[in-house]
Specification:
Radius of gyration: 46 Å
Helix content: 10-25%
Structural class: alpha/beta
């Protein structure tokens, strides 16, 4: 071995030793992991994709395989297990987005996605977005999302439990979106006291009953949207939200709605359409109102209830806040057989006209308008019945009055007449009876009763001209 070769080997060993010092366990970042890449052309981007036997990634701000401080984008995909530690996003001044996708089991620690103020007390110059897709989360603990976050998007995610205050004390938030998710248990105050521009639940299933104040003290600036949401039960005051300019509840299936289930104070219109409400308690929609300032400056807002289906409901099920809204109820479907004897009861409970009610034909089981079910237009028929009864009653009163008038006039005509009894033969022969008077007619016959008209004539003497 020559001197040059020996020197080269010594230099290589020194370099390997120096590299080992640089990548000591305390200083190694995710960029040093075999399943993560940090492309030099995309400064700050870290992508971890699990392959082979390495199926676990731990996201933390300090310690072995920590996220690098210059991180701008963290993407973790196709892993069996991912653990996001407490304060994993601390001290990441340039972080813009965290994306976790296709994680078989994603464990989230308290304050995992917490973005506090900077160490100098200043608001972060960059506010990150957290996006989780096609994953399973056993629990979102308290304060899992906290601080300065731009958006929180969960898509096709199954969550066993959302603890109280899981979404709380958030700032600079533009959008919370839960799309195509399955939420098994949502505890009271799971979404608590923050301001967000837009709140969306789309294609999401809430397996267990949503308790009172599950979403509470939220101020929504732009829109509240529930679209294709299914839920077994909404307790009273499940949502307490104020401030949105529009509220859309579309194509949802909510098995049971208690009174004032949604308490939303808006600055604009409310549109509820194409939904299925199998069971509706009285006052289920009375929780909607309009902000005082809006009501004072712009007047009542529009409340549209269009093409919704009900099955079981009670009186007042479709009561609305008429002080705040101009309600427009159109095309209500009752998913029961058309039964003429109870259709009038439905209408009195729903407070809508029959032309807006559909029911199931007893033969074809197809939806038809109620006036095509052989019942006729019950409201029109009722009006006709009332008119007929009124006219008949008037004619009856008029008839009684005419009969009474005729009787009175007849009595007046006969008041000056005397009726004289014509005596029989025995009475004629008994002149001592002072109470009877007999009349003898020329033919020698007498009549038991004869009407006697006494005509008083005045006779004056005739002057003798002789």
């Amino acid at each position: 071995m020559t001197r040059t070769t020996l020197l080269l080997l010594l230099v290589m060993e020194a370099m390997m030793h120096a590299n080992a010092i640089v990548t000591s366990p305390e200083q190694a970042s995710l960029c040093d992991s075999s399943i993560c890449t940090c492309p030099p052309t995309s400064w700050g981007n870290v992508t971890c994709q699990c392959v082979g036997s390495q199926q676990e990634v731990i996201v933390r701000s300090r310690g072995h395989l920590h996220v690098p401080s210059h991180l701008t984008l963290l993407r973790v995909v196709d892993c069996e297990h991912v653990l996001v530690m407490e304060d994993a996003l601390h001290d990441l001044r340039f972080l813009q987005k965290v994306e976790l996708r296709r994680i078989r089991r994603l464990e989230v620690a308290p304050r995992a996605f917490s973005r506090p103020l900077e160490s100098d007390g200043e608001v972060p110059s960059t506010v990150p977005e957290v996006k989780i897709e096609e994953s399973y989360i056993p629990e979102l603990p308290s304060y899992a999302f906290r601080g300065y976050l731009r958006a929180i998007r969960l898509r096709d995610v199954r969550v066993d439990t959302i603890a109280a205050f899981a979404f709380a004390s958030l700032s600079s938030l533009e959008h919370i979106e839960l799309r195509d998710c399955t939420l098994n248990t949502v505890n009271a105050q799971a979404f608590k006291k923050f301001v967000v521009r837009k709140l969306s639940f789309v294609g999401t299933s809430i397996v267990k009953a949503l308790p009172s104040r599950a979403v509470t003290d939220l101020e929504v600036i732009s829109e509240v949207r529930f679209e294709r949401v299914s839920a077994v039960r909404l307790h009273s005051s499940s949502l307490l939200v104020r401030g949105p300019h529009t509220v859309h509840i579309t194509a949802c299936n909510i098995s049971h709605m208690e009174g004032e289930a949604l308490r939303i104070s808006t600055q604009g219109a409310v549109v509820i359409q194409d939904n299925i409400f199998p069971s509706v308690d009285p006052g289920a929609f009375l929780g909607f109102s309009v902000e005082r300032y809006t009501l004072r400056e712009k007047g009542r807002q529009e409340f549209v209830f269009h093409n919704n289906t009900l099955h079981s409901f009670k009186a007042g099920a479709l009561s609305f806040n008429e002080t705040s809204f101009e309600a427009r109820i159109e095309k209500v479907t009752v998913s029961r057989l058309c039964m003429c004897d109870i259709l009038e009861l439905w209408l009195s409970q729903l407070k809508v006209t029959v032309d807006e009610v559909l029911c199931l034909d007893s033969t074809t089981k197809q939806l038809i308008e109620a006036n095509e079910a052989g019942c006729g237009s019950l409201h029109g028929w009722s009006g006709t019945l009332v008119l007929v009864v009124t006219i008949c009653g008037g004619l009856l009163v008029l008839g009684i009055a005419l009969i009474a008038l005729c009787c009175w006039r007849r009595r007046q005509r006969t008041r000056g007449k005397r009726w004289v009894t014509v005596p029989n033969k025995n009475k004629v022969k008994n002149p001592g009876n002072a109470h009877t008077m007999g009349i003898v007619l020329p033919d020698g016959r007498t009549y038991r009763e004869t009407e006697l008209h006494v005509i008083v004539e005045r006779a004056e003497p005739i002057d003798d001209k002789d």
